[in-house]
Design goal:
Strands 2-1-3-4-7-8 form a six-stranded parallel β-sheet, with helices on both faces. It has a two-stranded antiparallel sheet with strand order 5-6. Helix 2 crosses helix 3. By secondary structure, it is α/β, with parallel strands linked by helices. It contains eight helices and eight strands, in the order E-H-E-H-E-H-E-H-H-E-E-H-E-H-E-H.
């Protein structure tokens, strides 16, 4: 394990999460300093600036920075922090194909691209806001990520298929760990234990 005073672990929560989740990672990574991003961004273009600024403030004085990011937090991090000096990244159920996810939501809500382009934003019956600006940004800014990465994926993830996750991991050279009966959100006791063990192993 790297020296505590030289290593910072940055935690980025997913949708519906909060910065307090970082406290759990501090409890299992006692040999590192853990800090969570208390971010406000809802889109990748907002996160581009906010995450970059937060990284610069938090990482000052540390020799190594390790990134731990969850779900859409991982997608936002890859969009915003690809050029930063990050020692390694650990992604939990990352969103790796945002365009496909948006198009899946559009299909579920019976929304065409022409309709979305005309209306700019549509609130679906299942509560998700779909934005033409967001979809356009995703298409024009594909993920380019060359940082040493470890991915934890649940075989029952309902947002990203195993084929998509495997393809992404292969493309960026990431080490992929699959918990076959795990879901997108690692919240059950057995999932939490699996996650904690994976974190400790991958971060060392």
């Amino acid at each position: 394990m790297c020296d505590r005073m030289q290593t910072l672990v940055i935690y980025i929560h997913g949708k519906g999460g909060n910065v307090k989740e970082a406290q759990h990672y501090q409890s299992i990574l006692s040999d590192s300093v853990v800090a969570g991003f208390d971010y406000k961004s809802q889109t990748p273009y907002e996160a581009k600036a906010e995450f970059s600024n937060l990284y610069d403030v938090y990482s000052k004085g540390y020799k190594r920075v390790i990134l731990v990011a969850n779900s859409i937090g991982a997608y936002l991090a890859m969009n915003a922090l690809a050029e930063k000096k990050i020692y390694k990244a650990l992604f939990i159920s990352p969103i790796v194909d945002m365009e496909r996810l948006i198009k899946d939501m559009m299909k579920r809500a019976d929304i065409t691209e022409a309709e979305l382009e005309k209306k700019r934003e549509i609130i679906t019956k299942f509560g998700e806001k779909i934005s033409w600006e967001y979809l356009s940004y995703v298409r024009n800014n594909p993920i380019r990520w060359n940082i040493l990465t470890y991915i934890l994926y649940g075989g029952k993830d309902n947002l990203t298929s195993k084929e998509t996750m495997t393809g992404f991991a292969d493309r960026i050279g990431a080490a992929l760990t699959i918990m076959e009966d795990g879901e997108h959100r690692f919240h059950r006791d057995e999932e939490k234990k699996f996650l904690d063990k994976w974190i400790k192993t991958s971060i060392s």
